[in-house]
TrEMBL record:
Name recorded for this polypeptide: Acetylxylan esterase
InterPro entries associated with the record: AB_hydrolase_fold (IPR029058), AXE1_dom (IPR008391), CE7 (IPR039069)
Native species: Salinispora arenicola
GO biological process, one term: polysaccharide metabolic process
Catalytic residues as annotated in Swiss-Prot or TrEMBL: S186, D272, H301
GO MF entries: carboxylic ester hydrolase activity
Length: 325
């Protein structure tokens, strides 16, 4: 893959020219109001993993519609807290996996909540959270599920689960509720970015190669999945193009970024043909809080990989450092 998108100087100045839905804030206030009619009902159960430097709990809470959402809580063994926390959301098709796959943040002294994505877990890591809702016509995958209306759209449920995950982790005695960061890569970055726009008092958000940003542009400049799911759908449902993009506007990370006022950290690979760099910069350039974009000129969707991990650990530790840290 080559650098197929804009030059870097144009990316830094790029503004997405789509108009957000006029009732964007009303829609999300109503959605979260409905979600909060259900008690969180957080249940935390110890898990014997044979890991000795971390403690692992299986956590469940009520997400959208009162549906149970599962997560792992991985934290340093022997530390009573209150600890800063990282809530991590998972990339497209994956689930929370197994606890030993996620040790980095706990090793750095954080409580780490690794959240399932409802209905996923069939592509590259296991999940334990179903999505008990049918949809109308859609392309294989998740991007077009329920696209007939904002109320039925799949990511309404997913983003709501993300908000509830932050609310759930804040109830845990080991967590300092004022020091919660949200993060994720690709789809996980999209969820984290949405949560940062919907939960104004988180400590910060790190979105690595985030999906669902500048959606109309992204689907026009890349042939790669998952955006290709939408292209295939609209290639069949030719008379639904305007309506579909109208629905997607409620879930676009650019419009979420406008409402995110805490510090943000983005990562972009300039050869990323999955989430094109212009879509990432479109969100970063609208981000309402202090923002940093880490650029990797010769990387694709993986971005900086382990180098992103290293830089993000430094950023997160500095962001939530307590008086004795």
């Amino acid at each position: 893959m080559t650098q197929f998108d804009m030059p870097l100087d144009q990316l830094r100045a790029f503004r997405y020219d789509e108009t957000e839905p006029a009732d964007f804030d009303v829609f999300w206030a109503k959605t979260l109001g409905e979600v909060r009619h259900h008690e969180l009902d957080v249940v935390q159960c110890p898990v014997d993993t044979r890991l000795r430097t971390v403690t692992v709990d299986d956590v469940a809470f009520n997400g959208f519609g009162g549906d149970r959402v599962r997560a792992w809580l991985v934290r340093p063994a022997g530390l009573a807290g209150p600890l800063p926390a990282v809530v991590e959301f998972i990339g497209y098709g994956g689930g929370r996996g197994l606890p030993h796959e996620k040790l980095l943040w706990a090793s750095a002294g954080f409580a780490h909540l690794v959240v399932d994505t409802r209905g996923q877990g069939g592509l590259w890591s296991v999940a334990d959270t179903p999505d008990p809702y049918g949809t109308g016509s859609s392309a294989p995958g998740f991007l077009t599920r329920g696209i007939s209306s904002p109320e039925d759209y799949y990511y309404r449920r997913v983003f709501s689960d993300g908000v509830r995950a932050v609310e759930a982790v804040r109830t845990l005695p080991v967590v300092d509720a004022s020091r919660v960061i949200v993060t994720g890569s690709s789809q996980g970055g999209a969820i984290a970015l949405a949560v940062s726009g919907l939960v104004p008092d988180i400590a910060g958000v790190a979105a690595r190669s985030p999906f669902l940003c500048a959606i109309r542009r992204a689907v026009a400049v890349t042939d790669s999945d998952p955006y290709a799911e939408l292209r295939r759908f609209l290639g069949i449902h030719r008379h639904e193009i305007t309506h579909a993009f109208g629905v997607l506007g409620y879930f676009d990370g650019v419009f979420m970024a406008r409402r995110a006022r805490r510090p943000g950290w983005f990562s972009a690979g300039l050869m990323d043909d999955v989430c094109p760099p212009s879509s990432v910069f479109a969100a970063a350039n609208e981000f309402a809080g202090p923002v940093h974009v880490e650029v990797w000129p010769y990387n694709g969707h993986e971005g900086g990989g382990v180098d992103d991990d290293r830089l993000l650990l430094d950023w997160g530790a500095n962001l939530v450092a307590g008086p004795d840290e």
